[in-house]
Amino acid sequence: MALVKSGMLWRQSTILKRWKKNWFDLWLDGILVYYEDENHRQLEDSIHLRINCINIKAGYECIEGLPPEQSSRECMIIIYLRDGSKLALCADSSDDALAWKLAFLETKYSPVTQYDPADDHYQTVAPNAFNTIYVNPRNCGYPQSGSGMTHVWVHENPFYNTGGQIALGMLAGAVTGTVLRSLMWSPCWL
Fold first, then answer.
1. What is the pLDDT of residues 32-51, one digit of tens each?
2. pLDDT per residue over 48-86, tens digit each?
3. Among 11, 116, 120, 140, which residue is least crowded by beta carbons within 10 Å?
4. What is the rounded end-to-end Cα distance, in angstroms, of the chain?
5. Residue 155 pLDDT greater than 80, yes or no
6. H or E segment at 44?
7. b/e map of 109-148 (b: 16 or more CB within 10 Å)?
8. 3-state class of 105 per DSSP?
9. What is the CATH number of the domain that holds 34?
């Protein structure tokens, strides 16, 4: 997918309501990904705007919440999500906030198409294009492919990697349980 807009924005945390800077990437298929910094090392979260976003407000439309101390209300952006939560953001200027809002709306409402070289036309990609399988019985312009060969494309979400995290969490829980169990019962055996 193509990158629509990227840059630093202030984001209000959900629990402590503190403002911190994050690097945001907005992709053409409507996925908003934000990282701890511009190096893309630590993924904070990703939101699929086409599926989860209800409304987007910017500038003086944002009557809820307060912007960071160094910014004004006209720099704020609030994304209201389907689960009832909201993502409060703040840009460096009012023009930047308006540009982000327009980019959010464009990716939310514009269909994403993918070029099919075999038929020389564009096909619409599903809203959640990851883990989608496309089967094409044509040779797709590859001369080495036979006429009866079927091509299969699988699009996977590059940010979906929870298997290792779950296994590590289970291991940490087992070790913690063993240590606590030994500490709790050791005074009884003395």
1. 999 988 888 888 888 888 88
2. 888 888 899 998 888 887 888 888 889 999 999 988 899
3. 120
4. 64
5. no
6. strand 43-48
7. eeebeeeeeeeeeeeebeeebbeeeeebeebeeeeeeeee
8. helix
9. 2.30.29.30
Which residues 6+ apart lie within 8 Å of 84 measured at CB?
none
Residue 177 lies inside a defined structural domain of this protein: no
In a domain, 103, yes or no: yes
- Quickly state the pLDDT bin for 143 (edges 50, 70, 90): very low
The residue ranges of DSSP E strands in 59-173, in sequence order, are 76-81, 86-90, 113-116, 121-124, 132-136, 151-155
Q: What is the pLDDT of residues 109-123, one digit of tens each?
A: 877 666 667 777 666
φ, ψ for residue 86 (rounded to 5)?
-140, 150
Domain of 142 in residue numbering reads as 113-155
CA distance 190 to 188: 6
DSSP string, 47-70: EEHHHHEEEEEEGGG--SS---TT
DSSP 15: S
Whether residues 93 and 138 share a domain: the answer is no
